[in-house]
Amino acid sequence: MSTGHSADLPILPGATLGVLGGGQLGRMFAHAAQRMGYFTAVLDPDADSPAGRVSHHHIHTDYADVDGLARLAGLADAVTTEFENVPAPSLEHLAVARPVSPAASAIAIAQDRIAEKAHFTRCGVPCAPYAVIETAEQLAAVDDQLLPGILKTARLGYDGKGQQRVKTRAELVEAWQAAGCVPCVLEKMLPLEFECSVILARGRDGQIVHFPPQRNLHRDGILAVTEVHPQNMPKTVAQGAVNSAKSIASGLDYVGVLCVEFFALADGSLVVNEMAPRPHNSGHYTMEACDVSQFELQVRTLAGLPLTAPRQHSPAVMLNLLGDLWFPGGEGDGAKPVAPRWSEVLALPGTHLHLYGKLAPRRGRKMGHLTLTGATLESVRANASQAALLLGLPALA
Questions:
Q1: 188 among the known binding-site residues?
Q2: Is residue 261 marked as binding?
Q3: Three-state SS for 298?
Q4: 275 appears as a binding residue in the annotation
Q5: What is the pLDDT of residue 330?
Q6: Nearest to 367 by CA among 375, 376, 359
Q7: Which Pfam families match (predicted)?
Q8: 113 annotated to bind ligand
């Protein structure tokens, strides 16, 4: 179920919507809610959190603090989360008093790769062949057919963290020990053609709307480029991804915005990688290229408002902006950050710059993104290539 509390829905503008987590996704949720006439309340332990600094209320405390949760429940008429590693018991606690979406049960599954893969299997959505490794006995019993593979910690892995490639049994043993012998999954490496994702929104009544599937490029485990246009992947692959994402959401009785990431293989088939129970980097383009953004759909699902099918009106390319851009000579010994070439980038037609309000750039830290839109795919890709050149980013694939 989406919530342990029955409330009068819809929750109309003028009410207060709460979010656990103060990062950039919470910030963009707050902006979307405020644009629609809602007040917002953020609970986050960082006094300078990007979302907390733009919200009407910022409860500066730990996610598991009972008093802080009580304050949030007192302020907010409904509560969501901006990232999956918020404690599921905190969401359960809030759901006694207020509508909460997504539900703690969905968050708990997304926090554990073992439970997540079991859910995908129950929904009939294929994963890469894998083995669960929780004990030395399970490690010893791993099938040779799974090598070479990727060893992933079952919990607290994102943006490439908690992952190690292994080619041999010796490397597998060493990697598991280096991970602290915590529960892991070993996934077989498959012949990857490209990566893609589907972002959908599901209401309390079970209605689902979705955006066009996004084609994604990752570098060092972090999303670097997203392209969304009718030519970005074969139609059969796109439809298969949408159908699988819908099955995963329905199987959770999910309420909220959900992103499901896939690997498209060389033979044209798809395997699911993971899900994110929230808006996603690969959906940032929706703020400029669609008539309804992923963040507005997050507001609508939380408040019980009607869901309308989003329409993409412009081809789009999104470039992720990491803290590395502020250190063109490297982030060594006392290097001071240098502002990227924003004026030249913003001179390009159809550029939309989003910086997240983070006070200090650091290598690998997500500082913002740049979305490029236009009338034609050719013009958008040309301007995206020029923007990447100006920013010192690798060329588009």
A1: yes
A2: no
A3: helix
A4: no
A5: 72
A6: 359
A7: ATP-grasp (PF02222), PurK_C (PF17769), RS_preATP-grasp-like (PF22660)
A8: yes
φ and ψ at residue 143, rounded to 5 degrees: -70, 135
Q: Stretch 85-102: mean pLDDT, rounded? A: 96
Token pair, residue 385, equals 């290539």
User: Was 296 annotated as part of a binding site?
Assistant: no
- CB 213, CB 242: distance < 8 Å: yes
Distance of CA 181 to the CA centre of its chain: 27
Query: What is the C-alpha to C-alpha distance for residues 245 and 198, in angstroms, rounded to an integer?
Result: 7
Q: Are 358 and 365 in contact (CB under 8 A)?
A: yes
Ligand-binding site membership of 273 (annotated): yes
Q: Is 216 marked as a binding-site residue?
A: no
Q: Does 28 appear as a known binding residue?
A: no
Q: Is 162 annotated as a binding residue?
A: yes
Is 189 marked as binding a ligand? yes
Closest-CA residue to 29 (of 2, 58, 57, 54):
54
Q: What is the arithmetic mean of pLDDT over 152-171? A: 84
pTM of model > 0.70: yes
Q: Can you tell me the distance from the alpha carbon of 55 to that of 30, in angstroms, rounded to the nearest whole number?
A: 6
Q: Would the annotation count 161 as a binding residue?
A: yes
Is 203 annotated for ligand binding? Answer: no
Q: What is the pLDDT of residue 158?
A: 61
Q: What are phi and psi of 281, to 5 degrees?
A: -50, -40
Q: Give the integer Cα–Cα distance in Å for 317 and 307.
A: 25
Tokens of 203: 């209401």
Angle made by CA atoms 150, 156, 158, in degrees to the nearest 5: 60
What digits encode the pLDDT tens for the residues 291-320?
A: 999 999 999 999 999 999 999 999 999 999
Question: What per-residue confidence (pLDDT) applies to 4?
Answer: 43
Task: Report whether 378 belongs to an annotated binding site.
Answer: no
Helix (H) or strand (E) holding 252: none
| 152 marked as binding residue | yes
Q: What is the DSSP string of 69-86?
A: HHHHHHH-SEEEESSTTS
Give the strands of the sheet with 163-166, arranged side by side: 130-133, 184-188, 149-153, 163-166
**290: helix, strand or coil:** strand
Which of 7, 239, 269, 281 has its CA nearest to residue 128?
A: 269
